[in-house]
Amino acid sequence: MSSDDDTKDMVETVDVSPREAESSIPQAPGADVFRQLLHQAVRVADMANSQAMRMALDFAKVYEREQGVRKEFENQLKQMTLMEKQATRYAEDLAGMLRSERERRQELERALAQERIASEELRRTGLQGISHLLLAATIKDRTTGTHLQRVRRYVEAIAQRLGLPEDLVEEFGYSSVMHDVGKIHTPDHILQSEHVLSDDEFSVIKQHCIDGEKMLGTARFFETARAIAREHHERWDGKGYPDGKKGEEISLAARIVSIADVFDALTSKRPYKEAWSAEAGLKAIEAGAGERFDPEIVAGFIALAGEGVLERISSEVAASEDEDHSGSSAK
Ligand SMILES: [Fe+2]
Ligand SMILES: [Fe+2]
C-alpha cells in the first residue's frame, strides 16, 4: 500500500458526525471537527515522518554496506595491482638471471671449444714431433719401422685389457714408440753388433735410456714417453737398468712396454738371430713373470695371445707395411 492510500484510509476512518452526548453542550460548530482533523493530520505527519526516517535509516544502512563493499573492493584491487607489480618484477628478475646464465654458459662453451682446439693443436704438434724423432731413429736402426708399430698395438691391447681409460690407452700407445729414441746417440758398430757385447759396450747401450728421456724434453705431452724411455729395460725383480727400479716403482706404461718390446724382439729376425715362433716367444715371456716382468701384465698378455689378438695385430701390421712400400719394406 502506498503512503497516499494509507493517508486516505486514515482520513476516511475519522468520524466527523456530531455525537449525541456532546450535542447537548453548545459549542462552536466545526471546532471539534477541526480539532479532530488537526489531530488526524498530526498523526499522518508523524507516520509519514517515521516512515521517512525508516527509509532514511534503511538507505543509510544500504549506503554504509555499499561503501564497505566498495572499500573492500578497492583494497583488493590495490592488493592485486601490488601483487601484479611484484609478479612482473619477479618475472623480469628471473628472465635477467636466465639471460646472464645463458651468457655465462655460452662463454664457458666458447672457452671450452678454444681449449679443445688448443689441446688438439698441441697433440698434433706432439705427434708430429714423434714422427720426426722416429724418422731419425728409423734411418739409424733398420728394424724399427714395423717393430714400433707392433709394439704400439700390443701396448694398446694390453692397456685396454687392464681396463685403462681410452685416452690413457692412446697415450701409452703413442708414447711406446719412442722407447728407443735414445739409440740415436748409440754408435752404429755397437747397435749393429752381431757378437755378445763387452761390459764397456753394454754400458754404452744402457745410456740410450737416459739419452732418450733427456731428448723428450719437459713437455707434459711426453711425460709417459719419458718414463717409458727411461724404464723399459728395468725388471720387476730390480735387476734391470739403468736405475735398478723394482716392482711398481717402475711406471705401469714402462712395465707394459717392456713385455711388448721383448716379445716382439724375440719373434722378429735380428742381425744376430732368427725370428722365434710366437709360442716360443710367449713361453719366454711367461717364464719371466715375477722376475723380469710384472706377473699380472704377463697374465693379460698370455690371455690376449689365447684370443688371437697378438697374431691379428702382427698380420695387420705386416699387411699395412706391404701396402705402404709395395712389398719393399725396410726389414
Ligand atoms: Fe731399449
Ligand atoms: Fe724396442
Q: What string, H for helix and E for strand, traces the elements in order?
A: HHHHHHHHHHHH
Radius of gyration: 56 Å
Please state the overall shape, judged from the principal axes of the Cα atoms.
Answer: rod-shaped
Using DSSP, what is the number of strands? 0
How many helical elements? 12
How does this model look, in words?
Helices cover 72% and strands 0% of the residues. The protein has helices at 3-13, 20-23, 31-140, 144-161, 166-176, 188-191, 199-215, 223-231, 252-266, 278-287, 295-306, 309-325. The protein is rod-shaped. The chain starts with a helix and ends in a 6-residue tail after the last helix. Residues 179-180, 208, 232-233 line the site of one fe (ii) ion.
What's the arrangement of secondary structure elements?
Layout: H1 3-13, H2 20-23, H3 31-140, H4 144-161, H5 166-176, H6 188-191, H7 199-215, H8 223-231, H9 252-266, H10 278-287, H11 295-306, H12 309-325
The chain binds fe (ii) ion (FE2) (2 copies).
The site of one fe (ii) ion has 4 residues, from loops.
